[in-house]
Amino acid sequence: MKITILGAGVIGVTTAYLLAERGHEVEVIERQPHAAGETSHANGGQLSFAHAEPWANPLVLKKVFGWMFKEDAPLVLKPSLDPHMFKWTVQFLLNCQKSRCDANSLNLLRLGLYSKKVTEKIRITSGVEFDNSRNGILHLYTSQKDLDHAAVQAEFQNKYSGGTRIMDPIGREECLTKEPTLRHSERNIVGGVFCSVDEGGDCGMFTENLAEIAAREFGVKFSYNTTVERIIEEKGRITSVVTDKGTLKSDIFVVAMGSYSYHLLKQVGIHVPVYPMKGYSITVPSGDFKPSLSITDNENKIVVTPLGKRLRAAGTAEFAGYNHDVNEKRVAPILRATKTWYPKADYSEATLEKWACLRPSTPDGLPIIGRSKIENLYINTGHGTLGWTQAGGSANLLADIIDGHKTEIAMSGLDAARI
Predict the structure, then answer these.
(1) Do 397 and 352 fall into the same domain?
(2) Which residues does residue 221 pair with via DSSP β-bridges, in sequence order?
(3) Is pLDDT above 90 for 307?
(4) Plot region of 173 (φ>0 → left; ψ -120 to 50 → alpha; else → beta)
(5) What are phi and psi of 270, to 5 degrees?
(6) Distance, CA of 306 to CA of 292 (rounded, Å)
(7) Last residue of a domain, one of 361, 378, 404
(8) Are 316 and 301 contacting, i.e. CB atoms less than 8 angstroms apart?
């Protein structure tokens, strides 16, 4: 079959690679001049397969209203007259209930661990390079209360991880042993949670290199600098997609346009609960610091990942519509926190790279994968802050659905049929 994928971020490219590997004729449409031109370009660099606590959780619910009035808060969720955002916000707050959070966590964990399996296969079969570090991720805590909460969450996830212990609460000294460069930190580390199955790497590099491999090895056609304008439906099928370069026909269409999936799908009466959660990152030369693994700063909700001779720090969540501008007030807390962890890195203006992106987020934190109510229109979007982590698993699930195969894991909470 001819399959056209709309979007060349990490979700679209990974989907294209796996579908082409199965023998399908695949074309990818992307408005940027290359793959990973937007949200996948400079994210936090974590493959956090064990991370299964959604943003919508009871602890965040207790803090979110106070954060509304702080410009540098980890999460800025401000009231809006936008009906789409208002509905999204209400659903988000409802998902903060413990029962819903627990159910969502299990669905995220199932997808995350499955995605690790698929990502490992892609790494081996494709040989894709992306400054990968496979030493785990260390979640750090400066508050005993937050560490206690994390320990409870860790045990909850270990219970449902299929017999493998994936998260280990550890003390301060064990944290420093795991990552010796933290001995230079200015922070008062109480303890941490070490996730041995997790990894670090450059998502942008992964996506661009995998796109090149897909084109070279399987003949995937990438049409860059091409903007999708609308989709045409006739008698319950998508007959074509109109772009600024012409009209395209295909047997199957896959929407993997991140936050912009909402606007495109709305044209044919499909209302996905996806809203952009704006995030920021900085990239600096690591200088004298040579960290061996990625860390997560729980207090400030940022991650710091070594990428060769660079450090990538990312975080914050801001609801600012579809604005791509870099807000210096939002970058400042990331820069400030990173300096406290790695004070000897090079933070000069001449080398400091700043970046902003729009993460396609759902109220429950779960992606939307599968066939829509339109026969030949499929969806793979809504991955929020876990796009790269979930890309392999999501793409393989969608490929199975398109091929009419039984998926390897249950689709509960993930299936596009839920929208």
Answers:
(1) no
(2) 27
(3) yes
(4) alpha
(5) -110, 120
(6) 7
(7) 361
(8) yes
Query: Looking at residue 251, which CATH number applies to its domain?
Result: 3.50.50.60
The dihedral through the CA atoms of 232, 235, 236, 240 has a sign that is negative
Closest by CA to 359, choosing from 314, 414, 398, is 314
Q: How far is CA 164 from the centre of its chain?
A: 24
Which secondary-structure segment (H or E) carries 238?
Answer: strand 237-243
pLDDT on residue 415: 97
Residues 172 and 293 in one domain: yes
Residue of 348, 368, 352, 391 lying closest to 271 (CA atoms): 368
Tell me how many degrees the CA angle 378-214-37 measures, rounded to the nearest 5: 70
- Looking at residue 74, its pLDDT comes to 77
The answer to whether residue 119 is domain-embedded is: no
User: Is residue 405 predicted with pLDDT exceeding 70?
Assistant: yes
Please report whether residue 228 resides in a domain.
yes
Rounded Cα gap, residues 176 and 164, in angstroms: 24
CATH number at 322 reads 3.30.9.10
- pLDDT mean over 3-19: 98
> Which one of 361, 378, 409 terminates a domain?
361
Residue 123 lies in a domain: no
Q: Under the phi-then-psi rule, with left for phi > 0, alpha for psi from -120 to 50, and beta for the rest, what region is 100?
A: alpha
Contact 345, 285 (CB under 8 A): yes
Burial class (CB in 10 A: 0-12, 13-18, 19+), 164: exposed
User: Is 125 within the bounds of a domain?
Assistant: no
Q: What is the DSSP string of 172-205?
A: HHHHHHH-GGGGG--S---EEEEETT-EE--HHH
State which H helix or E strand residue 25 sits in: strand 25-29
Which residue segment(s) compose the domain that 320 sits in?
Answer: 50-106+131-199+275-361
Per cent of the chain over pLDDT 90 is 88
Q: Tell me what pLDDT residue 137 has.
A: 98
Residue 115 contacts residue 49 (beta carbons within 8 Å):
yes
**pLDDT for 193-218, tens place per residue?**
999 999 999 999 999 999 999 999 99
Mean pLDDT of the chain: 94
- Judge if 290 and 178 occupy the same domain: yes
Which tens digit of pLDDT belongs to each residue from 66-90?
776 677 777 777 667 789 988 998 9
pLDDT in tens, 223-272: 999 999 999 999 999 999 999 999 999 999 999 999 999 999 999 999 99
Same domain as 170, residue 80: yes
